[in-house]
Specification:
By secondary structure, the chain is α+β, with helices and mostly antiparallel strands. Helices cover 29% and strands 29% of the residues.
Length: 367
């Protein structure tokens, strides 16, 4: 079978993204229409010119970054990426007026017959709308998560970290609620999925559990109420939640979990106990609604309780017990820190290099 002839010049011109071909000496060889539109120049003006030729002082700091990236590819023969670079474009109809824009830039080496880099294929992707959408989503999620306020009489810290590699939000949440007497409820949860829909489900479930906890007989009954409510919400199935009722009169933590990683209790002697004796399936995972179980653990004054979502401990191709051991070690090493310092230390110790690959919520309370 004869392979069809391909007009690669036509393919290059038709590419939907902005693309340029340069020599290893950073001279333009070809550009497609989208790149010409972005830079506001014709093909005749660009082809044969040097990257920094006839550029304004405003453009040069950004272009120097691009130049360094291109040179790395020319020197090493390896792909290079500049992610999320801000470079504002001048409005063609309003000279001097520039509009905020964000870009991802990728350069790929093209090798000649001798195995050396012959050309540099440079792709420019406008991600401004994606960044704006993410900012809106994060603002919405932050608005739905409660601001830390005095709850009970013991200090607490909360943290939320979105995934670094997903430019959106998810359904992780935390909550702290006053209960009658010298008691409070502390909970964390995780809705399956990402994006505004998951964040919307998260807001509904967090509010429902916050309302149910002060009137429930215990954490198991609070989760039973939440489970019934979750069955009426699209996207709430398989949500995981762990909730704890802390009682300072009896020095006990009563807890219940709907498929969630176990809360960690750091005692004053440095030992860490995972509260894993009352774990049921996630919300809506059973065919029929059923009662949930709960258990209790004793604590002494000045112990530390940590609740978290799986982004803090889970890693690809790693057993969850390894993550739990890492969490216990971090708690023990920083046990004398105040909650704010301890929460920051745990994120530093536990989130992987390059930041979280999954969303993470964390609550740390000194008991």
């Amino acid at each position: 079978m004869t392979e069809p002839e391909v007009d690669y010049a036509a393919v290059f011109r038709a590419l939907p993204g902005a693309v340029a071909l340069l020599t290893p000496q950073l001279i333009f060889v070809d550009v497609n229409p989208e790149l010409m539109r972005i830079v506001g120049r014709t093909r005749e003006q660009l082809v044969g010119s040097f990257l920094l030729e006839d550029r304004s002082a405003n453009d040069r700091p950004f272009l120097l970054k691009v130049l360094a990236s291109l040179r790395r590819v020319a020197d090493t023969g390896e792909r290079d990426t500049l992610a999320l670079q801000r470079f504002d474009l001048e409005d063609p109809g309003q000279p001097g007026v520039r509009h905020e824009r964000y870009w991802n830039l990728t350069t790929i080496p093209v090798f000649g017959p001798d195995g050396r880099v012959a050309l540099l294929l440079h792709r420019v992707e406008d991600v401004t709308e994606l960044i704006r959408a993410r900012e809106v989503a994060l603002t919405l999620q932050e608005a739905m998560l409660p601001a830390l306020r005095p709850v009970g009489r013991h200090p607490a810290a909360v943290r939320y970290r979105p995934a670094a590699e997903a430019l959106n939000v998810a359904g992780d949440w935390y909550d702290l609620v006053d209960l009658p007497g010298d008691r409070i409820a502390v909970a964390v949860g995780d809705v399956v999925g990402h994006g505004l829909s998951a964040a919307g489900v998260m807001g509904q479930l967090r509010s429902a559990l916050s309302a149910a906890s002060p009137v429930a007989e215990g954490p198991a009954r609070a989760l039973e109420t939440l489970g019934l409510y979750a069955r009426t919400i699209d996207g709430a199935e398989n949500t995981t939640v762990a909730t704890t009722f802390i009682d300072w009169d009896t020095h006990t933590i009563t807890y219940s979990s709907a498929g969630h990683p176990p809360p960690a209790l750091l005692q004053r002697d440095g030992t860490v106990e995972f509260l894993d004796q009352a774990t049921d399936p996630p919300l809506g995972a059973r065919p029929q609604h059923a009662p949930r179980i709960q258990a209790a653990a004793a604590f002494r004054e000045d112990a530390v309780l940590a609740l978290y979502t799986d982004g803090l401990i889970e890693r690809r191709r790693e057993d969850i017990d390894t993550g739990l051991a890492r969490l216990a070690d971090s708690l023990a090493r920083h046990q004398t820190d105040d909650p704010e310092t301890l929460a920051d230390a745990m994120l530093t110790d536990l989130l992987p290099p390059g930041d979280a690959t999954d969303d993470t919520a964390l609550v740390v309370m000194r008991l």
